[in-house]
Amino acid sequence: MEILNYAFMQRALLAAVLVGITAPAVGIYLVQRRQALMGDGIGHVAMTGVGLGFLLSTSPVWMATAVAVAGAVIMELIRWYGRTRGDIALAMLFYGGMAGGVMFINLAPGGSNANLSSYLFGSLSTVSEDDVAAICLLAAFVVLVTVGLRRQLFAVSQDEEFARVTGLPVRVLNLLTAVTAAITVTVAMRVVGLLLVSALMVVPVAAAQQLTRGFAATFAIAVAIGVGVTLGGTVTSYYQDVPPGATIVLLTIGVFVVLTVLATPLARRRARALARGGAACTADVPGARGTSDEVKV
Amino acid sequence: MGDTTTKTTGEPVISLRGVTAELGARPVLRGIDLTVGAGEVVALLGANGSGKSTAVRSVIGQVPVTGGEIEIFGTPRRRFRDWARVGYVPQRTTAAGGVPATVTEVVSSGRLSRTRFGVLRKADRQAVRDALEQVGLADRAKDSVNALSGGQHQRVLIARALVSEPDLLIMDEPMAGVDLASQEVLAATLRAQVGHGTSVLLVLHELGPLEPLIDRAVVLRDGCVLHDGPPPEAVGQHALPGHDHVHPHDADAAPVRTGLLT
C-alpha cells in the first residue's frame, strides 16, 4: 500500500471517505423531499463564496461555506413565501451565484478561471491540511444532524403537513436540512467539485433504493455505496491519472446501473410473494383489485 | 349551538367561532361555527369546494385564518402545544416520499408528538405495534408503503394518527378511494376508538359505512354552515328496516345527542 505513504494521498483518502459518508446522508432527505437538484443549486451559489475567498485572500472553503449556507437559507425562504414565482427566484439565485463566482475570481489579484476549475471539478491532490481540518469539522456536524435527527428529518421530509401537526418545529428542521446540505456541498467541493457534488448526494440514494424497502436500510446502503465509490475513485485516479471527481461520479452511476439490473429479478420475486399472500386470504385472482372494489356502500 | 354537549368536562374539544379564511383572494370560509364536544363524533359534509377540508385544516393550523376564534381543548390554537392529544389523518395523496419507507417507519413518525427529540423507547415501539394491530396491518410492518394498495395505505395513515394515543382524531376524507375490505377495517377501528371516548371530527363526502357512528353532521355550502344537527336522513340500504344503528359509546357514557339538536 505505497499509496498511503504520501501525505497528500492520506489527506485525499480521508477527505474522500468523509464525502462518501456525508453526501448521501444529506442527499437522502433531499431525494425524499423530491429536491434532488437542490445540491446542484447550492453548488452554483457556493461558487460566489470561492470567488470571494480568492478576492479577499481568505480560505475559499470557509468563505464558500458561509455563502452556501446563506444561499440555502434564502432558497428555503423562497420555498416558503414564493409559491408561484419560486422557481424563477431560484433560477436567478443559481445563475447569479455562478456569475458572481466567475466575476470575483477574475477581479482577484492574479486570479483566473483556472483557479476556479479545481473547485468546479475537484482536485484531491491539492487538498491542504487546513482544508482537511475544515472538512473534518464540517463532516462531523453533518453526521450529527443527519443521524441524530433522522426520525425528525424523516417525518418532515415524508409528510410536512403531518409533521407540523405532531408539533415538531418544521421550519427549523427545514432550515437545518438546507444548512446541512450547504455544508455538505462545501465538504465535497474539494473532492468531486461543485458541479458534480449533487451526483454524490443523489445517485447513491437512487442506487440503494433498488434493493431496499425501508428508509433506514436505504440510508445505510447509500452511505456504504458513497464510501465505496469515493475511495475507489480516489485510488483509481492515483494509479491511472484520471480526474478523481469525474471518476467517482462515473463509478457511482455504474453502481446504480449494476444494482438496477440485479434488482429486477428481486423485485419480481417480491411481487410474486405478495400476490401469493393475497391469494391465500381472499381466494381471488392474484393482484386483481378491480374497479368494483372501489364502489362505496 | 355552543351547548351541543352535556358531557362531563364541559370544555368542547374543538370550537370554531366565526372563522373566516381565504385562499388567494377567494373567501373559502365565511364565518363558520363548529363545535365538537368530548367523546362526540362529528361529520363535516358538503360538496367539493364547500370549504370542509379548509375548515379542518384551519383547526390544525395549516390554513391561515383571517378572522374568528379557534380553540382546541379549550386553548386558543396559537397557544396550543399538546399535539400528542391530536391524531391527524390527512387526505391520502398519491404523492409519496422519494425514498422507500416501511410501514413501521411511517407509523413511528406519528409517535414524535410524544417522543419529540428523545429516543424511541420500548413503550413507543409497542405503541407502533398496537396501532398496526388495530388497523390489521401487523403482518405488513416491514413492507414498503409503496407496495400497499390505496386502502392499506389509508390504514397506515390512520395507524400513524393512533400511535400517539390521541384524545381527538381529525380525519380528512378517510374513506376516499378505499376498497371495501379496508373501509370495514377503518369503520371497526373508528368504532373501537369512539368506544374508548375519543372525539372525532371527520370530513366525509357521504356518510357511507361510518353513518352509525356519527352523532352529528355539519353541512357546509360555499363556506357557510347550512345544517348542524343529526346526520341527514339516511337513504338506500341504511334506511331499510332492521339496519342496526349502533352507538357503542352510549353504553358506558351519557348519550351525547340530547334533545337540544332536534
TrEMBL record, chain A:
InterPro entries: ABC_BtuC-like (IPR037294), ABC_TroCD (IPR001626). The keyword Plastid does not apply. It comes from the Bacteria. It is found in: Cell membrane; Membrane. It is a multi-pass membrane protein. One of its GO terms (cellular component) is ATP-binding cassette (ABC) transporter complex. Belongs to the ABC-3 integral membrane protein family. This is ABC transporter.
Automatic annotation (TrEMBL), chain B:
GO terms for molecular function: ATP binding; ATP hydrolysis activity. The keyword ATP-binding applies. Residues 14-247 form the ABC transporter domain. The keyword Membrane does not apply. Pfam families: ABC_tran. Signal peptide: none annotated. It comes from the Bacteria. Keywords: ATP-binding, Nucleotide-binding, Transport. This is ABC transporter. It comes from Streptomyces longispororuber.
